Amino acid sequence: MLTDVIHVENLVKKFGNITAVDGIQLDVQSGQIFGFLGPNGAGKSTTIKILATLVKPTSGRAAVAGFDVVAKPNEVRQSIGLVFQDQSLDDRLTAQENLWFHAMLYDLPSTLFAERIENVLRLVDLIDRRHSLVRTFSGGMKRRLEIARGLLHHPKVLFLDEPTLGLDPQTRNAIWKHVKALREEKGTTVFMTTHYMEEAEHCDKIAVIDHGKIQAIDSPAMLKRMIGGDTIIVSGDDGLAESLKRAYNVEVQKVGSEIHFQMASGAEFVPKLIAGFAGRVKSIQVKQPSLEDVFLKLTGHSIRAQEGTSQDQMRQMAQLWRRR
Amino acid sequence: MRIAVKTIYTIWLREAKTFSREKFRVVSMIAQPLLYLAVVAKGISSAVTLNGNAGINYLTFMYPGIIGMSILFTSIFSAVSIIWDREFGFLKEVLVAPVPRWAVALGKTFGGATISMIQATILILIAPIIGISLSPLIVVEMWIMALLIGVALTALGIAIAARMSSMQAFQMVMNFLVMPLYFLSGAMFPITSAPPLLKALMTVNPLTYCVDGLRNIIFSNTLMTAGPFVGRSVVEAAMSFGLIRWSLVFDMSIVTFVAVVLTAAGAYRFNNQQE
Ligand SMILES: Nc1ncnc2c1ncn2[C@@H]1O[C@H](COP(=O)(O)OP(=O)(O)OP(=O)(O)O)[C@@H](O)[C@H]1O
Ligand SMILES: [Mg+2]
Question: What backbone phi and psi angles, to 5 degrees, belong to B157?
Fold first, then answer.
């Protein structure tokens, strides 16, 4: 039986005259991995904070695990786990003490402490550093510990706000495996935000959000089908773009020296292209549509993944600096 | 209820652990009052004569006040670490946990009070050096007083810090709360000889009753060696010259009352905060 574990209706959050969340509507079913995809400042973290009872919405309604986030914050907190985007560890405690602290606050049975703590530390490869002060950890190690802590108690709903930002692919994969196993074994519902397109592919459903509004919600496959075919990337002489536009009646985009356009069936189109423009085309690529393309199409701009990461890095650096 | 107790214990333990790791804080907590005492002993006390001429020197008068001052600084510092926690993100972890927030505030309050008690214990040990005689009863009474006023002041700090988010705000607290609380506590000059306006302010300052109480406690086992009261208790002499204003029972009652009220206020304010 599928039930809505997260239910959001016309959710609005204003900070002064900034509307961070602008009338969001969504449902997440039990056991789903739900992804929130959007550029910086889209309102992803704000939505998570509202769902996690840390911020009160300006208007609208949200319920998690059947409990209203404003009326029943305690019941909501009992049902959720959360990995924050920004650091939330106590760096004057050791890795193990941070986990112990969490286990106490979440009322884990003390018989489970040792085993759980060891498990999550192994998962994020910090078992050797369990007795080191968090202050002595690198940025990536802190991030890993943060995730380990989020996985320590097994909540009904797990919120992950850009969980794997700045982690190496190996660690990212290990974490994904664990999250999926949790979902299989415990039916955990996962609500996550991300900048990484590859990561969004793991989700059962994705909401594309921009400027506080949801642009589309669907499975990754369905979203990509919206694009209407494959992306063809060609390079060639100067007038090629114009000629292609006239010949095939398509919208072309110039990206550097490359020309991008969409075609219903890329593989069958290639021979025609070669026949029609022999000598003028230097290279041809056919690409399956990616979520990046989806994002571009829905919002009219790219997710600025590159820019995003460097901004995040700066933010993290600023934090580290302040901390000294 | 079980969860609340567990929460109080967990938060308390964190306060104690992180405190013990901050070497700088531990050192300054001990060194600062000693420095004050040394300055007072060498400097001020030779220049100041107290009310009438009870034969009580300024250093003796000041010593309980310095213990009160240390408790004040320590408690407020413990409380405003909430601002730190907020700034560095750790507070989020606590606020999103399925525990009653008032229990978090209580854990923090008891943490601050515990550190205050440790500090008072260290400071009482130097009493014999300045000619004050100790007894087990004095130490126990002082612990109770340090606990009560530590709870009261930490809770006061929490009530203020619960809605603050920056270090500038912390500076404000120090300037407009802590320093006046100290100067108007009777630690430096007796309330009985203060001008009316100051007297009124001192009367509403809970720290005044703490300092007065500490004098009652700390002088109780020492006899006068000079002045008109030779051979009688220092408390008696101080009382008749206005250096102690109230009885210990009265002081304790006021401090207990204030501790209860402020604890409730701190817990309430912390309970109703947003991120
Ligand atoms: N506490 C706050 N006070 C004022 N404005 C805020 C606050 N928190 C968020 N905002 C604003 O709300 C908007 C959405 O922020 P939010 O953190 O939700 O974005 P995001 O989608 O998580 O972005 P990112 O990818 O950078 O994490 C931004 O314009 C931000 O400046
Ligand atoms: Mg965010």
Answer: -60, -40
Whole-angstrom CA distances from A278 to A241, A260, A274 are: 14, 18, 5
The answer on pLDDT for A307 being more than 50 is no
Tell me whether residues A86 and B89 touch, CB distance under 8 A. Answer: yes
Question: pTM here?
Answer: 0.85
Q: Which residues on neighbouring strands pair with residue A161, listed in sequence order?
A: A193
**Residue A2 pLDDT > 70:** no
**Encoding tokens for residue A281?**
């085309």
Q: What share of chain B is helix, strand, coil (3-state, %, to 5)?
A: 75, 0, 25
Ligand 1: nearest atom to the Cα of A162: 27
Contact A209, A21 (CB under 8 A): no
In CATH, what number does A4-219 get?
Answer: 3.40.50.300
Residue A18 contacts by C-beta under 8 Å, 6 or more apart in sequence?
A: none
Residues on chain B bordering chain A, Cβ-to-Cβ distance under 8 angstroms: 3, 6-7, 9-10, 14, 17-18, 21-22, 85, 87-100, 274-275
pLDDT tens for each residue of B109-151: 999 999 999 999 988 888 888 888 889 999 999 999 999 999 9
Number of H helices and E strands in chain B, helices first, is: 13, 0
- The answer to whether A320 and A139 are in contact (CB under 8 A) is yes
Chain A residue numbers with beta carbons less than 8 Å from the beta carbon of B89 are 84, 86-89
**A84 CA from centroid of ligand 1 (Å):** 13
Report the distance separating Cα A284 and Cα B137, nearest Å: 92
Give the angle B68-B178-B171 at the CA atoms, nearest 5°: 145
Would you list the domain boundaries of chain A?
4-219, 228-288
The second-level CATH assignment, the architecture, of A228-288 is 2-Layer Sandwich (3.30)
